[in-house]
Amino acid sequence: MRGVEAAFAAWYEVEKGRFASEALRQILTEVAPAERRLAASLLYGALRRQSLWKDLIRNRCRRPFHQLAPVTRAALILGTAGLVELRHFVPAVLMNALAMRLRAEKAQGDEPLLHAVLHRVTEDAPRKMEQLRNSAELRDQALLFGIPGWAAAHWSREWGTSETRRLLRLSAMKAYLSLRVDPTRRDELVEALQAAGTRAWASPDLASAVRTASFGFPPGLPGYEEGAVTPMSESSLWVGEAAVSSWSGGAVLDLCAGRGVKTGHLATRLPEATLEAWDLSAGRVHAGAREMARLGVADRVTFREGDALELEPRTPPSLILADVPCSGSGTWSRHPEAKWRLAAEKLEDYAVLQVRLLERAADLVLPGGRVVYSTCSLFREENEKVVAELLGRRKDLVEVPFPFKNSLFRKGRPYGTVIWPGLPWVDGFYAAVLMKRR
Ligand SMILES: C[S@@+](CC[C@H](N)C(=O)[O-])C[C@H]1O[C@@H](n2cnc3c(N)ncnc32)[C@H](O)[C@@H]1O
């Protein structure tokens, strides 16, 4: 499959509700290595600033956008992103590939429209983008950087205008792959990665992290099969490390374990601990159990499917990681499709569930034990406000300081620590460490 064709295939999968990274990983196995980067750049470029591309197209297309055939809409958006943003395309080659796609899907009648609209868009885009860049309106900045207007307005109430402008810029930045490794083997693994053609180097911030210049997950990464390397953002690693350093013996419970990324981190960093990991989704529980086998820790970790509000731990835990479901707004540069699926009203539902899950963790943890609450969100409703509600309600809980310092950390207002998405390997996260009084 050629790169442009792969971008179309992935685009359709994302429209059906799949994660872009997942869809792409599967599709790229059928794409020639030389074309993979092109497919990924085109898909991510189109997704990141989808609202801007649609705005440019709508104002230059005589037919209503939503009435166009799906292939034409996809061709217009991918084409706009490719022509306006990505430098490695020769316009005529891209146009030709898009037109071939229309023909393959029996929409050749739309070829003149495609040519005309893309021609106008590429002519007008630089001026329009300059206008947005110079505008004092937050709405315009949100459009320029591809952030839903409601989210930008929300952030500006929480962070103020100038911080929000920075956040908009950062949310449009390309996210790169970082890897969790055994710190004692880091140099050797960096060498193996480099020998296999992946630009990789040690993270200056975390002893267990390696940074790479690739985005997406290269199949067959050296050390992956044997469990020596695991894709994980540095912010996620900080949260895992905070849980590791909160352990002082006893059983560990990962309340919302997902596919076990942080569970695996805890299990490998705490070789004397036994762990239980829960998740509502059967698919994730299976994936989590497989992940434990890959890491060679399956004998110490029990994955269980069920509702964390109802399950009972087999051993009362002295440490609970509550990495709760959230809007994911801190990971929008890594998963740009997520921002277009989230509605403002959903935040309230998340917050209600988050309070209940944190309360459950507080009930289950042994006196003297700790709960690490975390989200990959940058909305206060899901972060400080959840912790504040619990701390206000329960006198048996107190906050303990976050165990690390970094220039990307900001003090939560008033509780917890916000990890600012200031580098391509660092997503926006929030974490608070709580202790249950004896
Ligand atoms: C942020 S994700 C966890 C990611 C995971 N900790 C990791 O690092 O890979 C939140 C998870 O919570 C799960 N979840 C949602 N509601 C739940 C509930 N009531 N009980 C248990 N798990 C739940 C979701 O299925 C999702 O996998």
From TrEMBL:
PROSITE patterns, alphabetized: SAM_MT_RSMB_NOP
UniProt cross-references to InterPro entries, sorted A to Z: MeTrfase_RsmB-F_NOP2_cat, MeTrfase_RsmB-F_NOP2_dom, NusB-like_sf, NusB_RsmB_TIM44, RCMT, RsmB-like_ferredoxin, SAM-dependent_MTases_sf
Record flagged with keyword Zinc-finger: no
CDD domains cross-referenced by the UniProt entry: AdoMet_MTases
Keyword terms: Methyltransferase, RNA-binding, S-adenosyl-L-methionine, Transferase
Pfam (any one): RsmF-B_ferredox
Superkingdom of this protein's organism: Bacteria
Binding annotation for S-adenosyl-L-methionine: 279, 307, 323
BP GO annotations: regulation of DNA-templated transcription; RNA methylation
Gene3D superfamilies assigned to the protein according to its UniProt record, in alphabetical order: NusB-like (1.10.940.10), Vaccinia Virus protein VP39 (3.40.50.150)
Positions of the SAM-dependent MTase RsmB/NOP-type domain: 165-437
PANTHER family membership: NOP2 YEAST -RELATED NOL1/NOP2/FMU SUN DOMAIN-CONTAINING, RIBOSOMAL RNA SMALL SUBUNIT METHYLTRANSFERASE B-RELATED
Family of this protein: Belongs to the class I-like SAM-binding methyltransferase superfamily. RsmB/NOP family.
Name assigned to this protein: Fmu (Sun) domain protein
Organism field: Aminomonas paucivorans DSM 12260
